[in-house]
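ERR on first pass: missing label on line 2. Operator R.T. fixed the label and resubmitted. Corrected input:
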Amino acid sequence: MKIMMIGFGTVGQGFAELLLEKKNELPEKIEIVAVYDKKMGGAVNHNGIDLKSLLEAASSGQVYSLQGGIKEVDVPNFIKEVPSDVMVEVTYTNLETGEPAYTHIIEALKSGKNVVTTNKGPIALFYNELKSLADKYNRILKFEGTVLSGTPAINLAFSSLKGSKINKIRGILNGTTNYILTNMQTGMSYSEALKEAQKLGYAEADPTGDVEGWDAMAKILILTNVLLGGGITKKDVFREGITGITADMVKEAIMEGKKWKLIGEAKVMGNRIEASVKPQKISKEDKLYSVDGVLNSIVFTTDTLGEVQIVGPGAGRRETGYAVLSDILSLS
Amino acid sequence: MKIMMIGFGTVGQGFAELLLEKKNELPEKIEIVAVYDKKMGGAVNHNGIDLKSLLEAASSGQVYSLQGGIKEVDVPNFIKEVPSDVMVEVTYTNLETGEPAYTHIIEALKSGKNVVTTNKGPIALFYNELKSLADKYNRILKFEGTVLSGTPAINLAFSSLKGSKINKIRGILNGTTNYILTNMQTGMSYSEALKEAQKLGYAEADPTGDVEGWDAMAKILILTNVLLGGGITKKDVFREGITGITADMVKEAIMEGKKWKLIGEAKVMGNRIEASVKPQKISKEDKLYSVDGVLNSIVFTTDTLGEVQIVGPGAGRRETGYAVLSDILSLS
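pass 2 clean. output:
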């Protein structure tokens, strides 16, 4: 299988590292034949780019220095012209426009490529449209890494729960906020816990996307539109972040035997879907109570099994790289 | 897809009920063309047996009274002679010999039928042999319902974690014992909690298979041989049940912030596999701590994602019936 990578940051490199590590164990030969990253340039080699050289070039920010290297391209045209079986879209996330990933995915599908992405933007904003396009061109669109990184939440619901109706999805979908809230359990203030998360690289310098619930909201949009069949958009999701949670509120919760968690939730109510992201004070009986730190979890309520829960990492270079690998393997 | 059912007790009826309920939502037409149960007789109808009539006949124990009914057959011959795409094996479990399911599965594979079973006996005792036979005849052997009923633990590990190496499996694999231990948390003695479980139908009149850990051991054999690639047998699994757990031990554990759980565990140690089923006193930090009542759970330790946990029902008519449906859907 021949892969084209668009974007080669943390996730792209995490995927290439796994591919290198597992080369001899994979059921099929998987080769990266083209890479392009806006900051590092790209390279094309129809016989497969040497992964070790690629990772070295990326670590010095100079992918263009490889054999077959290129400094700058028109990306949509690059996607269209370079032959490959799968385009892996791992550029940066934009929750306003979904760009540039949205355009990349459209170009890939139209030129006959399957698509694997971990990019929340296009899937949260345009899933129905992109799915229709994939169907029209008889291609497959995979996006396990958009939710819970490589923890196979989407595949669980899609393939393992096939034949079940999912009526409700409820989860801890953002590791950064869960890490902050877990640390606040020990008495830290919100700003201390945030600083700690930033120090460890769990939170960005501008933490807005995580702490105001935007990231969790994107994931709820994806889960809702993909699994509950709802065509909802950002304005349909009530969203509240964790910046209003004080040390006192956490202390009070502890005294009641409870914890504050940022919960994303979507449920089918007749032919409407109710969706929200907000802090909830939950008790020990709640299946999400013991999901702490950077762990994420989703509880699916089904008509056949009642509640089925999956718990696993929600982020990480290797973990999200694995999401790409697992999607690619499912294509073969 | 044409199905033959061998055995038509709780699980078989649970499956037929789901099939009737979901008839119009399934991606493919699935028909039961043959049924045989030792106690109720059988029926054959190449155009599909009417499910409502079948379930009514079963509730009065007289499947043979249906059109195309038969009182007694030689089962292996019946499996061989009656055409169908899939044989569903849901007779009773025998952990000593795997029979009669073992013979049924062999006959089905040899006569070109795919096999779906929830029967732990043949998979726990003869997985490697049956898998080779399935491969030889180019048929598929599915058994999601042997572990955690319909909760898709096997499929999660097999398909969603494809590309990962699983190094360790650890879980609460038996609902009866977990229910008893959970009730003992409230101060009940072992025998009171057992009686309560029997009253609710969670434990059988002779509870040995559950409380002595045989059922959990069968599941550990299945998980080990299927997912860790180990060819281990009963004698390789250390097994201890919960009958030695006293109210005092439970009280002591509570005072330490801990709980007793019956844990099945298998880990790869170099080229050996260490497997056991035994009561363990676990602390709050343990991912299995909050899995209470009849719930089951497995934690898979992988080389790509660290720990991934699934939690769901471990038993039930509808839940295990769904395991059969989900396996059948995965064949199509």
